[in-house]
Fold:
Amino acid sequence: MNRKIASTLYFSLQDLRGEPVRKILDELMRTQSYSLHHLTELQAIRTKTILVHAVENVPYYRENYKSFRSQIYEVNHPEELETLMKDLPVLSKQKVLEHFNEFRADSFLERKSTNNITSGSSGNPLMFPCDNQSWAHRHANVYRVLKMYGVEPGDPYGYLFGLHWKKKSRRKVRFKDLLFNRVRVSAFSISRDTVPESFEKLRKKKVNHFIGYPSAMYDFIVLSDELGLPVRDLGLKCIMGSAEPFLPFQREAIEALTGSRCIDYYGSVEGGPGAFEGPEGLMQQFMESSYLYVNSSNEIFTTDYNLFSFPLIKYQIGDFVAQWHTSNRPLTFAHKLFGSVSGRSGTPILLPNGNTINANVPSYIFKNMAGKRKILSYRFVHDTSKKTLKLFIVPLTKSLNSLKEELEQEIRVGLECPCEIHFINELPNLPNAKHRDYIEV
Structure:
């Protein structure tokens, strides 16, 4: 599809959906030239706006923020808001699942929202109503970053991301892929057998950038090179990572083989756009769209300024700042410096039966259940000595037999590996686990 046609079609359809992506992108292109002082003031205004909205319109915050109510109304300066955000209680995914309906704003039905579901890279998939304004900020921020590297809205691209095995899910993504003018390469089926066909589709589409899991893009590009496919001839302008950070060896190999720049993009479905890799190679915060609070242990907590239907304030995403970025020279953009992020592993998983799967496959077992809220938390446990796999689940539903049958069917297709299912009351904390939902013992 021609870039201009694709861009016009995309923006027009988003406007019809009530997602003003073009308007927000224009706004972000203006604010990205703001000074740090101006951005900090804008961030303070938007932080206070979402906090006031929460205590006035959302049952959960009306009850749990009672002791902060007067402080929320009185606070104005950025320094005061930083102190307030530090004092506010942490919001966990467990709290959201346990009190789900209490997070709906009183004005929920009056607002335009569309259900959003987490990819699973941050743990058990969660579905919630996401304001169309928030959707617009998410898409617009991606385009803003891509424009820094010469990519324009509507440019064709390769999308190396997860793809569910159910036919219904695949039909839905086919329409999205057409709308976004992209070629999808399933991160779950990259092999010597599938790469040549996918490469030819990307070449014919004349894609000029990739977006996807760094682990999947690394596998695809390295295999393409080993098979003698001219990756560099694709002429990629940039390669944007999503759901997990680029590891040094991945970045080095990808950039050497493609001649293109790898860029990290940090965000989450629950927290919106978080941080982007600027031209200088440093991570910087999306100050216009979200607030990132980092505690003394370097754990990251997110707040999306545009989630008014279902606010998630100081949300615990489970990520950490691994290394803060600093600079002694002026940067192209004044946005606050952030740092490299840890907490999401793209390392492939070796199953007991000897098969290797993408790190995100276990979460896709639960992807179609997210809206049903049957599960509070889960964890796969691989006993390497006995070569067994067990799935431990803390359920929210009492219909355990039907839940077990549904899970057995998903596991049979998704993992293709024998697995015992056990229902328990609580999962132990495992802060040092490489993967959040799959561990070896």
